[in-house]
Every structure is written in C-alpha cells, then in structure tokens.
Amino acid sequence: MKAIRRFSVRPVLPEPLRPLSELARNLRWSWHPETRELFQAVDPEGWRAAAGDPMRLLGSVPADRLAALADDRRFRRRLTAAADDLQDYLTGRRWYQEQPEGLPAAIAYFSPEFGITAALPQYSGGLGILAGDHLKSASDLGVPLIGVGLLYRHGYFRQSLSREGWQQEHYPLLDPNELPLTMLREPDGSASRVSLALPGGRSLRAHIWQARVGRVPLLLLDSDVEENGPGEREVTDRLYGGGGEHRLLQEMLLGIGGVRAVRTYCRLTGHPEPEVFHTNEGHAGFLGLERIRELVTTGLDFDAALECARAGAVFTTHTPVPAGIDRFDRELVARHFGPAGELPGIDVERVLELGLETYPGGEPGLFNMAVMGLRLAQRANGVSTLHGQVSRQMFAGLWPGFDPEEVPIDSVTNGVHAPTWVAPEVLRLGARRVGAGRAEDALAVGGSQRWDALADIPDADIWELRRTLREQLVEEVRERLRASWRERGAGTAELGWIDGVLDPGVLTIGFARRVPSYKRLTLMLRDRDRLMELLLHPERPVQIVVAGKAHPADDSGKRLVQELVRFADDPRVRRRLVFLPDYGMAMAQRLYPGCDVWLNNPLRPLEACGTSGMKAALNGCLNLSVLDGWWDEWYEPDFGWAIPTADGAAMDEDRRDDLEAAALYELLERRVAPRFYDRAQGGLPGRWIEMVRRTLTTLGPKVLAGRMVREYVERLYAPAAEAQRALTPAAASELAAWKARVRAGWPAVAVDHVEAVADTALNGTATLGSTVSLRVSVTLGPLDPADVEVQAVAGRVDPADRLSKTAVFPLKPAGGPALDGRRLYEGPLTLDRTGPFGYTVRILPAHRLLSSGAEMGLVTLPSEATGEAAGVLLR
Fold it and tell me: Rounded to 5 degrees, what angle do the CA atoms 581, 664, 485 make?
C-alpha cells in the first residue's frame, strides 16, 4: 500500500535538550568536530544509521533515551558548552569585522547548486562544492554573505550500476521538512513567496526556505507551491534536469526570483541590503535584469540603471569550454521577456542585446548566459591563473581591438574549506603541535604563507597517520563495494573476494570526479597490460580507487564508466582497482585522506581549477596531475609530479592520449612507486614522508577557501561596493549619457601621425635605457581631451611585430587644438629591455567611473600607413 499523503512528525525534545534542535539546524555541525561528537553521543547506533545527519538522528531517538540524556549532568554540560560555542561563533567579531571601514554591508552570492553537506543534497559536483565552501569560509571570516539558490525536490541523481556496469540514475524525493531548513514566513505566519510573470497570464510562484550555514543564511527557492500549475510546480524538480524552457525558467527563478527573495529576507530580518551581487557562473545571470528593473521603478532610465547594476556586480566564470555554458534560442527568451512576460516596462530588445552573441565568431540567434553575466558585471574572474588566461581568450570577442591579456577578466584561484575536508586525525596531529585554537584558526582563516610548525612532526607520526587513514579507506571501500555488488544482483555467496579488496600497506591512488570526456576517466586503461603490471607488481604494487558520475544525458560518459567498471570487474585485478558508485560528499571525506596519491589527467587547459586535489593535499596526499587548473599554478617537485602534456598543434586525439598515458605509466613505475616503497631502517620511506611534509607546510596554506574568500573581499567585493556607492542616480545618469556620447562620436576618433625623436640616432637600434620622445597627432571629432586617454604601448615583438609583455605609457596633451582641429600628445618612452622591442600608440575612452580602459570595448589604433612610424625600434 502507498500513503495518500506524506508529512513529517518532529520530535519533542525535553526542555534541557532543546539546544540540540538549534545545533542540528545550523549546518556548522558539518565542519565542527565537537558538535558532531556530541550528536554521536546521543545515540551511536542511531548516528551511524542516520549517516551522520543530526536531523534524522533526532527524529529516530527513542523517548526513553532522550529522557535519560536530559537527566545526564555530564551530557548537559557538553550540550551547554556546544550551544555557548555556537552562540559565540555567530555573534563574535571575526576577520571581516577587524578590517578598515568601507567593506560592503552585505554581499548576495548566487549559485545554481550548493554542496554544504551530504545531509542537504543540492549539488552535483565541483561548482556546488566550491559554492558551499565559499559560504562556509565566509561564515568563518565573518563576511556578511547571503547565499541564494534553488531547492531541488529530487536533488541530483543517486548513481548505481547494473550487472553489466551501466550507470543507472535514481531521484529520491526530498521532503524539505526533513531537511535542516526553515521556511521563511511573514509576520502573520503565512509563507513568504516570490512570484514571476509568465507568458499567457500564468505565474511562477516559489516559497523561500532558509538553511543556516554558520553565520550565513542560504535562501533556497522552491516552486512546489499548490497555487502553481503542474508545469510550474516542476520547475525546481531536479538539478540540471530538462532543457530549453524548463532550464530557462529555473534560471529566471534563480536570478530574478533570487533578488526578490533577498529583498524579502532583508525586510523580515533587518539584515543589511546587499551592496554587491556575485553571480557564481552564468546560471544566475538574470539577477542583473531584476536589479535594473528595480532601479527603473525609482525613475532611472534603462541605461543609467544598467550602469548602476553593473557597478556592484561580480561575475565568476567556471567553464573553459563554450559547451559548458547555457545558451537559449533568442525567440524563447524574447517570449518570456516580452509584453506579456516578466520585467514589464523594459524593452525586450534591450534585454536581448545583453545576452546575444553579437560579436565575431558568435551565433547572433543565441542568448548566452555567460555573455550576459559579463555584460552585466563590471568585475569578472576565472578560478585559476590559467583559467583566467583561457577565459580572456574565450571571451575576447566582447572586447574587439584588445589583445586577450587586456580583456578585463581577472582570476581568483579556488580554495577548499579545510575544516570540512581535513580528516579529524590530521587536525589532531596539527593541534598537538600548535594547539587546538591555532590549528582551527589556521585552517579556517588562513593568512600564513607557510605552516612551518608542521615541519617538525616526526617521520614516524606522519607515517602512522597515513597508515591509519589508508586502513579506514580500505574498510570504507569494502563496505561500499559490497553494497554496490548487491545492488547489481550478486548474492552473499559470490562476494567473499571483497574481504581481500585493497591492502592497507599498498600505494593507494585516488581518482574521483565528474565524467565528462575531457577529464579522461579511462586514460589509465590506454595500455591495459601495462596497467595490470603496475597493479600486480610483485614488489611495488599500486591500487586505485575510482569514483565518478556521468551526466544522465551523457551516454558517452556512461560508456566511459562502463568501460572502467568492466575492467575493474576482472578477477585478475578487482582486488587492486575498484569503482565506487554514487560519488558524493560523504564518500569524498573518506577518499581524499585515505589515498597516498591523487590522480588528475584532464585535457589541458580544460580543467578550470580542479579542487579535489586540494582537498587531498590538505590530508597529506601527493598530487600526480597534468599541469592544468590550480596545479599549473602551484606545482613544485617537492610535493608531487607533473604529467607531461602532448599539446602540439598537429597532435591528433589518439596520439595525444597514447603519449600522455605512457608518461603516466612511466611516472608511476619509475618515480612514484619506487619512492613510496623505498624504506630506510625502521621501515619508513623517508623521501616520501618529506614530500608529505612539504605538501602540508607549503601547499596547505595556499589551497584554503579562507585565502580565496579574502581575495574576493579585497580584490572584487570592496572595489565593487565602492563603485556602487559612487553611482548615485545622478552619477549613473551622467555616466550613461557620457558613454552614449562617446560611442556616437568614436568613429571620428583617429591617430593621424606618430613622430619619434630619440636622444641618440636610432638607425634601427638603440641602447638600453635610452629615451624616445613621442609626438602623436590625433583627431577626436566631437569628443574632448577629457573623454580619452592617449597611450604608448611598448614591449617585446615577435617576427610579425606582434607585441607582448607590454607596458603602458600615458601621453599628455600639448596645447590646444590646431587649426584643422587635430590635437598633439607628447611623452617619453624609455627603452627598458634589450632584444626585439617595439611600440604602438592607441586612444581609449577615459572616465573616473570606468573600471578599466577596456570596459567599453572601444580602442583606436594607428592605420597601417600611420603605423609606419610605430614599428620596431630594436632588433
């Protein structure tokens, strides 16, 4: 029989135990060991059965056990201490409160997914885990962030395997009342709601649920509202489900509905209104349109409102490939923002021009969410130094006339929330060296360049730690593998071999991530005989634990999973290589610490950052990776290995994979395994242990999300708030009018003549340190000198006279206009480097409220004829 209605029955805690409810509903427990230990003490068996979820635990504890705990003075003291500690954490001054005045009063952070804890399954992979770590680190630092996302009733799928090794998806129904969530309510007790207008007179309504992530509220919009039609109720059905209109509605609800949810939350709670709006990937890009609508209702015109909204906006792109960006048909977007749709009073053509790919190489009929994100944000960034370079090249069409390195997309390298990902055993080892308080502060707040206090940990202690973590992983793998085989239809009698899977004394390699083709799950299978030799080596064997999910619509990814699973099923290797289905946070928290080596072999440069190796490193695991993402930035031979990249322009895919797989096998056979098994007296691998120590002391402080969030505050949030404050309604209107005037007049701007006067005769060469005086004649048309900046740009030149490693030298106006209206600019150019050297001149728009000279995408360079005098000076 099936129930005709479902509801949750909440436990009634005895009065002395009431603080347990508050502790369970604040997700700080997910990264606070003492609080988790307190819940475990409530009912150890129930804690295991609840998979470490306090809400589920409290819903299952027998009444007599609760009564006994209420009478237990020792437990009550622990509970009081935990509750007091949480209150101090929520209200005390932290890093942000100690900074100079001028930081944003609040920041709204929008993301399509958030990986906070396995108990709130609203994530699919790296983007969501990064967003969750961002919120947790913001809480630790005291940053006044408000998170905004969607509440997916089915979350992301659960993965299992068929007998043949084919991925199968399951979508369990999530009841918000059974999750650590509270519905946002009006003063009269009714549920708070946001509403969006849809074509045909329909509405999309959503409730607002709140999760408390330490000090940070996370608002999740839920369209499963009775007043909605069936289609609208399903908008928040599952993460990354559906396509076309369904996906568009999700992103409209996230962006437009998300801003309205933030306004509702601030109205009800008194939380400061955000001065900065951060869009984590393009899915939430419509939030900028809603902010424009808000400003238009105050009397600003569209252009002034656009300038105002852009000033306080930050956009982070996470994808290095165009295929990873959501793009919608122009007509679909036009229908939803037309007269009968959302954002009334705003011309749909103005909406469309923000997202259409109207640039060289784009498809003008497609509305690109990342393009809209960039056009609606004055500040943008990639998520590693290399990814910033890739992003500048990828989106260079939006800034025609500028070299990719001048495209205004910065980079802030991702980090990971150490208190979430560091194993308790690792934390205790650090705490013994520096004290519990200092260790917790170092992991949560960061700020150190090195953790030298860890350098003195004895070799024996480090090796014992690694052995303990490896043993725990072996137990976890066997338990999960047994459950997986039972799901695949195996009986108990045929699973005896699982008791011998993996060996706690063998070099253990981890590989776990999503399974798009570029991450190359099966590169390790390129030469199966050689891999088998590595796995079964009589003296230096290796064992590999693999996990990962393919997108439900990605059959090619599913075939990769099946290929790996079938190899792992081979009786010859199944004790040395395993595939674990249903990769998620709970598995990852055991997998990262338990591995000796973390393997990553994407196609360079398609890994934007790749934070799994960071989490492994914080637990003393060494990285073996292609130089991509963060590893390209921070790799050193002291704490890992780099897989060479076969990236020649004429290289075909098969040949590239063959070469890189061969390099991987060579590293494992000749460098990684010998170092692990090279034991000195006492049985300790001294050189391996030293690499672990270097990983902890040198790499550890760099990979922290605390470092990442501080960089966002200092480099992006603070300047965005300052720009937002400067854009008063009058200033915004003035800036919009100025931009319109400059764009209209720009076709008449020209570089007419460039003259160089050297302090010595050039004759094609000059000496280092000599100076060239430039005199540049320009036409500004209807523009004034105050509207522009004339620059000399100098640097190295290649054989085709292309400049690189450039420096900019502003030139100054010399007197008034000539009779023909031309103006003269002058300035010195110092020849500050030897070798091939060249320069050019250019004219850019200039205004005190522009974030960079490239912001408007306007630049005037010399014509070919004029450029004769702007060529090469040194050869």
Answer: 20
Q: What is the 3-state secondary structure (H, E, C) of 18-58?
A: CHHHHHHHEHHHHHCHHHHHHHHHHCHHHHHHCCCCHHHHH
Q: According to the CATH classification, is domain 95-415+717-726 in 1.10.760.10? A: no
User: Would you list the DSSP string of 815-837?
Assistant: SS--TTS-EEEEEEEE--S-SSE
Pair of tokens at residue 836 = 């091939």
Domain ranges in the chain are: 16-91, 95-415+717-726, 455-702, 747-870
**Burial grade of 169 (CB within 10 A; 0-12, 13-18, 19 or more):** middle
469/589 Cα distance (integer angstroms): 11
Specify the DSSP class assigned to residue 278: E
d(CA 136, CA 153): 23
Report pLDDT digits (tens) over 282-320: 999 999 999 999 999 999 999 999 999 999 999 999 988
Which of 787, 778, 776 minimizes the C-alpha distance to 869?
776
* Domain 95-415+717-726 identical in fold to domain 747-870: no
Q: In what order do the strands lie in the sheet with 837-845?
A: 750-758, 771-779, 823-830, 803-813, 788-797, 837-845, 872-874
pLDDT of residue 757: 78
Query: Residues 446-504: pLDDT tens digits?
Result: 878 889 888 889 999 999 999 999 999 999 999 999 999 999 999 989 999 999 999 99
Q: Which residue has the higher pLDDT, 651 or 538?
A: 538
Phi and psi, residue 407, nearest 5°: -60, 130
Gap between the Cα atoms of 88 and 39, Å rounded? 19
Other CB atoms within 10 A of residue 479 CB: 11
Which stretch of DSSP H or E encloses residue 694? helix 686-694
CB-based contacts of 102, cutoff 8 Å, min separation 6: 718, 721, 722
CATH of 747-870, one of 2.40.50, 3.30.460, 2.60.40, 2.30.30: 2.60.40
pLDDT tens figures, 22-80: 999 999 999 999 999 999 999 999 999 999 999 999 999 999 999 999 999 999 999 99
Spell out the SS3 assignment of 115-170: CCCCCCCECCCHHHHHHHHHHHHHHHHCCCEEEEEECCCCCCCEEEECCCCCEEEE
Residue 777: strand pairing partners: 753, 824
SS3 state at 735 = helix
Residue 268 CB: number of other CB atoms within 10 A? Answer: 14
How many C-beta atoms surround the C-beta of residue 627 within 10 A?
16
Model pLDDT for residues 338-348, shown as the tens digit of each residue: 888 899 889 99
Do 38 and 23 meet the contact criterion of CB atoms below 8 Å apart?
yes
DSSP for 380-438 reads EEESSHHHHHHHHHHTGGGSTTS-GGGSS-EE----B-HHHHS-HHHHHHHHHHH-HHH
CA–CA dist 581, 479 (Å, integer): 12
Q: Find all residues with CB under 8 Å of 450, minimum gap 6, and list them.
A: 697, 698, 701
Mean pLDDT of the chain: 93
Structure tokens at 739: 């931009």
List the structure tokens of 820: 């023909």
- What count of other Cβ atoms lies within 10 Å of the Cβ of residue 115? 27
Topology of domain 455-702 in CATH is Rossmann fold (3.40.50)
Count CA within 13 A, CB hemisphere, residue 233. 7
With beta carbons less than 8 A apart as the criterion, state whether 842 and 859 touch.
Answer: yes
Helix ranges (DSSP H) in 727-866: 729-745
Tell me, yes or no, if the pTM score tops 0.85. Answer: yes
Asked if the bond preceding 605 is cis, omega within 30° of 0, the reply is yes
Phi, psi (5° rounding) for residue 696? -70, -45
